UniProtKB/TrEMBL annotation:
Native source organism of the sequence: Pelodiscus sinensis
Topology class, membrane: Single-pass type I membrane protein
Keyword Glycoprotein part of the UniProt annotation: yes
Protein name: B-cell receptor CD22
UniProt-listed InterPro entries: CD80_C2-set (IPR013162), Ig-like_dom (IPR007110), Ig-like_dom_sf (IPR036179), Ig-like_fold (IPR013783), Ig_CD22 (IPR056386), Ig_sub (IPR003599), Ig_sub2 (IPR003598)
A GO CC term assigned to this protein in UniProt: external side of plasma membrane
Subcellular location: Cell membrane
Ranges where the record places region Disordered: 736-757
Similarity comment text for this entry: Belongs to the immunoglobulin superfamily. SIGLEC (sialic acid binding Ig-like lectin) family.
Gene3D superfamilies: Immunoglobulins (2.60.40.10)
Domain Ig-like: 247-331, 336-417, 424-505, 512-589, 600-683
Keyword Cell membrane on entry: yes
Swiss-Prot/TrEMBL keywords: Cell adhesion, Cell membrane, Disulfide bond, Glycoprotein, Immunoglobulin domain, Lectin, Membrane, Repeat, Signal
Entry function: Most highly expressed siglec (sialic acid-binding immunoglobulin-like lectin) on B-cells that plays a role in various aspects of B-cell biology including differentiation, antigen presentation, and trafficking to bone marrow. Binds to alpha 2,6-linked sialic acid residues of surface molecules such as CD22 itself, CD45 and IgM in a cis configuration. Can also bind to ligands on other cells as an adhesion molecule in a trans configuration.
Length: 775
C-alpha cells in the first residue's frame, strides 16, 4: 500500500489517471436536443472537472453524426462533423462552428440543419500519454424536426381575479446563430399589468407572462408564438384562461316593477353579469337586515303593504367574494286604509267655536285628495286633510266621514258625529188665549223654542223685568188676576245658555174695582144742605165706565159718576150706592148712608119686666129715639127730676125700693138737640115679707091703702096706656146689651098716684104697675 501511494506522487511522466479519478463522463452535455430543418443545432459542451487531468493529453477530439463502433478497427466511424485531426464531412462543410475557448468548452454549432442530420451525435475524445490511451464517447440524441414544435405553456393551476399570475412559455431550443422569439398573443390590450420576460438557460428559450387577471381575461385564448430570426411565425401554443372572479355587476331586478300594488306578486331576481365559479348562495337583505339566504337566484312574494316596502339588497357570493347589489327601493302601493276621522278640537262643540276634524289614514303613495261627506252628502269645497270650521253653525251638526284617495284607490272612514250645542234659538212667548183676558180666566203663556241643543232644562218667566217664576215646561198657566197684567217674557235655558224672548203683553181685564161712593162736602148734613156724591173707581180695565146711581136700591140716575142732591131733606136720607160698569162687568159700591141730621124724635121709654114690680127686683128702663145722628146721651128723669145720664139707652136699677116709685121719662140728646119721652109710671110694691113686717109694725093702714089703690088702677087703666111694645121685643132688647148695673135710686117720695103723662110725642103713655103679691 505504501508503495502504491508513493507511485501516485512519483515525479516525472504523468502517472496513470486511473488511480487519480474516475472520469466516466468527461463532458457535460444535454442528453438530447431538438432542432428543425433549416434551424441550427447548438450542442453546449463543457469539460468536467475530472477531465482536466486528461485534457492536457487530449489528442483526438471528433464530433460524429451517428458514430458506429468497428470491432475490426476498434474505432468509431461515422460522419465527421468536427475533428481536430481529420477533415470534416463535406456535407457539413461550412456549417460547423466549434467552440473558441477550447480549454473549457467543447460546444458545437451546426447551422442549416437538414432532416438527414437527425440522429445521434457523438463526441469522441482520445487522450494519450506515453503508452497510455484513454478513450471516451459521449452521445447526444438530436431530433431534427420538420418544423419548429409548439412551445410549451406552463400555467398555474388556477387564475384568480386580482391575483398576480405567471405563465411561462418555453421551448427546449437555443442556438446562438438561429435565435427564435417567443411572444405572447391574444391578451387584452387594456390590461396594464401584463409584462413578459424572455430568458435562455440550458438550451431553453422562454417567455414569462406576468399579469393580474380580470374577469375579462376569463376564457380568453392566450397564445405563445414562436418566430424565426427572420420573423416568420412558425409555431404557437395557446391557453384558454380560466379566471375565477367574484360575481360581476350584481343587480337586483324587480318584476314586474319596483312600485307595485298590494297583493301583487313580486319577484326579486339577483342577476350578475357573470361569476366564476357560479354564485353559490344569494343573500337577501331588507333595510340592512338579513332576510334569506338561498341558492335560488329569485325570490317571490305577494306584496304586503307594511311588510314589503323598503330598501332591498341582494348579495351574490362565490368562493371569491360576496358582492352586494345596489339598493333597490320597493314601494308597495295601496289604497288608503285604516282611515278614520278624529276631532282635533274638544269634544264639546259649541256653536261659534272653531272645530277641526281631521282625516287620518295610511296610504302609499300619499293621499292626493280628501273627500268629505256630511250626512252622506259630498262637500264639494273640501279637499284637504282637515275639515276646518272657523265658527261652526248649529246646522252643521251631523255625521261626517272622509274618503281619502290616492292613485291606487279610495277608502271610506267611519262617520263621526258632530253635535253642535247651542243656546235655545227663536225663543218666543205667545199667549195661548189671545183674546180678551178676563180676570179669573185661565191664561196660558207658551214659551216656544225653535230649537235647542241640548234640550231646554228650564224656563224663567219674567213679568215686567223682574223674575216671576221658573218652570220645567214651556207652559205657564195661571188664573188671570189684575196683578198679572204686564209685559211677559220668558227665557229658555239649556246647558249652553239662556235666551230671553221679546215680551208679550198680558192685559187682564176686570170689572171696576174699589168702587166707592164719596160724598162732598164732608160733615153733617142738615136739612137744606146740598150734597154731591161721587162714584169713585180705583181701577178698572178697560177704563171706559158707565155709572148708575141707586138710593135704597131704587134707581136714581145713570151716566155720570156724580150724583148731586140739592136741598137735602130728611127724606133724602138713605143708602146710596153707585154701580160702575165697563166692558167686563159692573161693580156695585157699598151702600153709602146719607143721613140728614135731626134732633131725637119719637122718644119712648119702656120698663122691663112688664107687669108687677116688687121691691127687691131688678128693673131695666130703656129709652128709644129716632135721631140723626144717633143719640149721644140719655138723661133719666123721675118725676121731672134728673136722675142719671147714660151713654147707653138703658138704665138698670137693682133691688128696687118702694121709695123710688115715680114717673120716669128719658131725654135723648144728639148733636142737634134733644127729645123727651112721655113719662112712665114706675110703681114698686112691697113684697109679702115687708107687708107682714109692716103689718106687724102697724103700718097696715098705709099698705092697705096702697093695696086698694092698686086694685083701682088695675081696673081703671086706660086703653091708651096699653103697652106699645110687644113683650117679645122688650126681651130681645134686654138681651142685647148688658145694661150697667146701678145702685138703687134714692127714694124721694112715695108714689101716690098712677096715671098717664102726656109726653112730647103723640105715642101712648106707658104704665108700670106695682102690685101686691098675693098674700
Ligand atoms: C465484435 O467483437 C466482439 C467481441 O470482441 C463481439 O462480441 C462482437 O459480436 C463483434 N461484432 C461484430 C460485428 O463482429
Ligand atoms: C431522428 O432521430 C431520432 C432519435 O435520434 C429518431 O427518434 C427519429 O425517428 C429520427 N427521425 C427520422 C426522420 O429519422
Ligand atoms: C387559440 O388560438 C389558436 C391559434 O390562434 C387556435 O389554433 C386555437 O384553436 C385557439 N383555441 C381556442 C380555444 O380558441
Ligand atoms: C353583462 O354586461 C353587458 C355589458 O355591460 C351586457 O350587455 C350584458 O347583457 C350583461 N349580461 C348580463 C347577463 O347581465
Ligand atoms: C246654515 O245656516 C246658515 C245661517 O245660519 C245658512 O247661511 C246656511 O245656508 C245654513 N246651511 C245649511 C246647510 O242649511
Ligand atoms: C206652544 O207654541 C208652539 C209654537 O207656536 C206650538 O207648537 C205648541 O203647540 C204650543 N204649545 C201649547 C201647549 O200650546
Ligand atoms: C209693555 O210694553 C209696552 C210696549 O212694548 C209699553 O208701552 C208698556 O209700558 C209696557 N208695560 C210695562 C208694564 O212695562
Ligand atoms: C490513437 C489514435 O487513434 N490516433 C489517431 C489520431 O488520428 C490520426 C489521423 O487520423 C491517426 O493517424 C491516429 O492513429
Amino acid at each position: 500500500m505504501r508503495h502504491l501511494i508513493w507511485l501516485l506522487f512519483l515525479p516525472g511522466k504523468a502517472p496513470s489517471p486511473c488511480f487519480l479519478c474516475n472520469c466516466n463522463s468527461p463532458v457535460k452535455v444535454p442528453t438530447s436536443l431538438i432542432t428543425w430543418t433549416g434551424a441550427c443545432l447548438y450542442i453546449p459542451c463543457s469539460y468536467e472537472h475530472c477531465f482536466s487531468f486528461y485534457k492536457r493529453s487530449l489528442s483526438n477530439l471528433t464530433w460524429y453524426l451517428n458514430p458506429k463502433y468497428s470491432n475490426k478497427t476498434k474505432e468509431f466511424h461515422g460522419t465527421v462533423v468536427y475533428s481536430n485531426r481529420d477533415p470534416i464531412s463535406p456535407a457539413f462543410q461550412g456549417r460547423v462552428q466549434f467552440q473558441k475557448d477550447q480549454d473549457k468548452y467543447c460546444s458545437l454549432q451546426l447551422s442549416d440543419l437538414q432532416p438527414s442530420e437527425n440522429g445521434t451525435y457523438g463526441l469522441r475524445l482520445i487522450a494519450s500519454s506515453n503508452a497510455n490511451k484513454w478513450k471516451w464517447i459521449t452521445r447526444i440524441l438530436v431530433n431534427v424536426l420538420d418544423s419548429p414544435p409548439a412551445p410549451e405553456i406552463e400555467a398555474p393551476s388556477e387564475f384568480r381575479e386580482s391575483t398576480s399570475a405567471h405563465v411561462v412559455c418555453s421551448i427546449a431550443y437555443y442556438c446562438p446563430d438561429y435565435k427564435i422569439t417567443l411572444s405572447w398573443g391574444g391578451l387584452l390590450p387594456h390590461n396594464p399589468e401584463i409584462f413578459t420576460t424572455s430568458s435562455v438557460e440550458n438550451i431553453m428559450t422562454m417567455n414569462t407572462l406576468t399579469f393580474t387577471p380580470t374577469w375579462e381575461d376569463h376564457g380568453k385564448n392566450v397564445t405563445c408564438q414562436l418566430s424565426t430570426p427572420t420573423g416568420t411565425l412558425s409555431s404557437e401554443s395557446s391557453l384558454v384562461l380560466h379566471v375565477k372572479y367574484a360575481p360581476r355587476n350584481v343587480q337586483l331586478t324587480v318584476t314586474p316593477r319596483q312600485t307595485i300594488k298590494e297583493g301583487d306578486r313580486v319577484t326579486l331576481k339577483c342577476e350578475t353579469n357573470g361569476s366564476n365559479p357560479a354564485v353559490s348562495v344569494y343573500n337577501w337583505k331588507k333595510d340592512g337586515l338579513q332576510l334569506y339566504q338561498e341558492q335560488e337566484q329569485s325570490w317571490g312574494f305577494y306584496a304586503e303593504a307594511d311588510e314589503h316596502s323598503g330598501s332591498y339588497i341582494c348579495e351574490a357570493a362565490n368562493e371569491i367574494r360576496t358582492v352586494p347589489s345596489p339598493a333597490v327601493r320597493i314601494q308597495v302601493q295601496y289604497a288608503p286604509k285604516d282611515t278614520r276621522v278624529e276631532l282635533l278640537t274638544g269634544s264639546q262643540i259649541r256653536e261659534g267655536t272653531m272645530v277641526i276634524v281631521s282625516c287620518f289614514c295610511k296610504a302609499v303613495p300619499p293621499v292626493s285628495l280628501y273627500m268629505w261627506y256630511w250626512n252622506g252628502q259630498h262637500i264639494e269645497s273640501q279637499t284637504q286633510k282637515n275639515l276646518h270650521f272657523d265658527k261652526i253653525l248649529s246646522n252643521q251638526s251631523g255625521s261626517y266621514h272622509c274618503e281619502p284617495e290616492n292613485e291606487v284607490g279610495t277608502s271610506k272612514s267611519r262617520a263621526i258625529m258632530i253635535d253642535v250645542l247651542y243656546s235655545p234659538k227663536w225663543v218666543r212667548i205667545t199667549l195661548e188665549t189671545p183674546h180678551r183676558i178676563l180676570e179669573g180666566s185661565a191664561v196660558t203663556l207658551n214659551c216656544s223654542v225653535g230649537s235647542s241643543n241640548p234640550p231646554v232644562i228650564k224656563y224663567r218667566w219674567y213679568q215686567d223685568v223682574r223674575q216671576y217664576r221658573e218652570t220645567q215646561e214651556g207652559i205657564l198657566p195661571f188664573v188671570a188676576s189684575e196683578e198679572q197684567s204686564g209685559n211677559y217674557s220668558c227665557a229658555a235655558e239649556n246647558a249652553v245658555g239662556s235666551i230671553q224672548s221679546s215680551p208679550v203683553s198680558v192685559d187682564v181685564q176686570y170689572a171696576p174695582k174699589g168702587v166707592n161712593v164719596v160724598r162732598e162736602p164732608l160733615g153733617s148734613i142738615k136739612e137744606g144742605d146740598t150734597v154731591t156724591l161721587k162714584c169713585s173707581v180705583t181701577r178698572a180695565n178697560p177704563h171706559a165706565l158707565q155709572y148708575t146711581w141707586y138710593k135704597d136700591n131704587v134707581l136714581q140716575g145713570e151716566g155720570s159718576d156724580t150724583l148731586r142732591l140739592p136741598a137735602m131733606k130728611s127724606a133724602d136720607s138713605g143708602h146710596y150706592h153707585c154701580e160702575a160698569q165697563n166692558a167686563v162687568g159692573s161693580t156695585v159700591a157699598r151702600p153709602f148712608p146719607l143721613d140728614v141730621w135731626y134732633a131725637p124724635r119719637d122718644v119712648q121709654m119702656s120698663v122691663a119686666p112688664r107687669g108687677q114690680i116688687v121691691e127687691g127686683m131688678e128693673v131695666m128702663l130703656r129709652c128709644r129715639a129716632d135721631a140723626q145722628p144717633a143719640v149721644l146721651k140719655y138723661d133719666w128723669y123721675r118725676d121731672g127730676q134728673w136722675q142719671e145720664r147714660e151713654v147707653q139707652d138703658t138704665l138698670l136699677i137693682e133691688n128696687v125700693d118702694v121709695g123710688i116709685s115715680g114717673h120716669y121719662h128719658c131725654r135723648a140728646s144728639n148733636q142737634i138737640s134733644s127729645g123727651d119721652s112721655p113719662p112712665v109710671l114706675l110703681y114698686i110694691r112691697y113684697n109679702s115679707r115687708t107687708i107682714a113686717k109692716k103689718a106687724a109694725l102697724g103700718v097696715g093702714v098705709g099698705l092697705a091703702f096702697l093695696f086698694l089703690l092698686a086694685l083701682q088702677e088695675e081696673a081703671s087703666s086706660p086703653r091708651a096706656c096699653s103697652g106699645a111694645y110687644e113683650q117679645e121685643e122688650q126681651e130681645i132688647l134686654l138681651s142685647r146689651s148688658e145694661p150697667r148695673r146701678r145702685a138703687p135710686l134714692k127714694p124721694q117720695r112715695p108714689v101716690s098716684s098712677v096715671g098717664c103723662l102726656n109726653g112730647a110725642s103723640s105715642e101712648a103713655i106707658n104704665y108700670a104697675t106695682l102690685q101686691f103679691p098675693p098674700s
